[in-house]
Specification:
Layout: H1 2-34, H2 37-40, E1 44-49, E2 55-60, E3 66-70, E4 76-79, E5 84-87, H3 91-98, H4 103-112, E6 118-121, H5 142-147, E7 149-150, H6 154-165, E8 172-175, E9 179-181, E10 187-189, H7 191-197, H8 205-210, E11 213-218, H9 222-234, E12 238-244, E13 253-256, H10 263-272, E14 275-278, E15 286-289
Parallel strand pairs: 1-6, 3-8, 11-12, 11-15, 13-14
Antiparallel strand pairs: 1-2, 2-3, 4-5, 6-7, 9-10, 13-15
Length: about 300
């Protein structure tokens, strides 16, 4: 009798353990789905794919305005955080040295000055070389999205792979790569010309419909506020003011004047990894208080 009871207890424990494990997987799947592109479905998704032929892919989820921007490895782009202009083909080495994969996001955002949410990069740390004339126009490869290292979760990868597979050829526009010689005599990506030529191309219709105004606050690094403001503007968000603040709070915050929080405020919060809070503002609907991310987005080398 005693052995039978012990066996029954063990079986019950196994059943409870299995149930908890299955419940945990179910909750994990629900959370992953809720935080994935499958659920969120933003108007536009910008993706950077780094391999021997670096590519920016901008996908419209609601229309047929899709864009591809091909880089080449020897071209230098602006990397915020005091790194200056850096070769695209050496970004993987820089990320490995700094142990900060989000440098990809900051580098591309600091270059095309619009939200670049996802990045894919090789598992091996290589330095690539290649001039403009050596690189032909290419489309993103599915294997990069499915198997490269990335900040995208599994469901995001599946969604992006599906979108790439179903892109219609006539819906893709290949963008030019403007260049200039900077004061250091380097050939660099010309962000100003790119912005002038393709102004409005990366707008999100959600932000335009919500019509939220934004004030950007910084404490020391104006270049950080400028990059952030231009990024917001080029994504379709209206920036009405950039001001120096005397606030000593080091926490990056996105402050909105009313609840429920707008999609604009939530997306700014998610992109810059800042806390979203309720607060007051005299001149805007949303305040972006840069706080501790100010240095990461600065062009200053000091």
């Amino acid at each position: 009798m005693k052995k039978r009871q012990e066996k029954q207890i063990k079986n019950n424990l196994k059943k409870v353990t299995l149930t908890l494990i299955l419940l945990g997987f179910f909750v994990f799947f629900i959370v992953q789905t809720y935080n994935s592109l499958i659920y969120k479905r933003p108007d536009r998704i910008n993706v950077f794919i780094l391999d021997e032929r670096p590519t920016l892919l901008s996908i419209s989820t609601s229309g047929e305005s899709n864009y591809i921007l091909n880089f080449y490895s020897d071209l230098k782009i602006n990397v915020p955080g005091g790194f200056g202009f850096y070769r695209v083909g050496a970004l993987n080495k820089l990320v490995d040295l700094e142990k900060d994969p989000d440098l990809y996001k900051r580098a591309l955002t600091g270059t095309i000055l619009t939200f670049t949410e996802y990045y894919f990069y090789p598992r091996s740390v290589d330095i690539d070389y290649g001039k403009k004339e050596d690189i032909s126009i290419v489309e993103p490869r599915i294997r990069n999205i499915l198997f490269s290292k990335s900040n995208a979760n599994f469901l995001d990868r599946l969604y992006l792979a599906y979108k790439v597979l179903t892109l219609k050829k006539n819906s893709i526009r290949f963008l030019d790569t403007p260049e200039k010689i900077n004061i250091s005599k380097d050939l660099v990506f010309d962000s100003e010309r790119f912005e002038e030529k393709y102004n409005g191309l990366f707008f999100h219709s959600t932000y335009r419909k919500e019509r939220k105004s934004v004030q950007v606050l910084y404490t020391k690094e104006y270049t950080s506020a400028d990059i952030v403001a231009q990024t917001l503007e080029n994504s379709g968000i209206r920036v009405v003011d950039i001001s120096k603040s005397s606030m000593t709070d080091n926490n990056c915050e996105i402050i909105e004047t009313q609840k429920p929080f707008s999609e604009t405020a939530k997306d700014i919060s998610n992109f810059f990894s800042c806390k979203l809070v309720l607060g007051e503002s005299e001149i805007s609907d949303i305040i972006v208080n840069l706080g501790d991310i100010e240095r990461k987005w600065s062009n200053s080398k000091n």
